[in-house]
Design brief:
Length: 57
């Protein structure tokens, strides 16, 4: 099977787009995991009489 030049360019463009999307997803997951409950910034209200783990605002 012989690939045309356009097919090769399209595959390269899709590969580049995939890499960009992977980078975006990793960035978003990092942001979500760093401050998922607001505790690090102090923005989350404290829950009294509850365990300190397992709660997310």
């Amino acid at each position: 099977m012989q690939l045309r030049e356009n097919d090769v360019k399209e595959v390269d463009e899709l590969r580049n787009e995939l890499e960009d999307l992977k980078s975006l997803v990793n960035t978003l997951l990092t942001i979500i995991m760093e401050e998922a409950d607001g505790v690090q910034s102090g923005a989350a209200p404290s829950l009294t009489d509850h365990p300190r783990r397992g709660y997310c605002m």
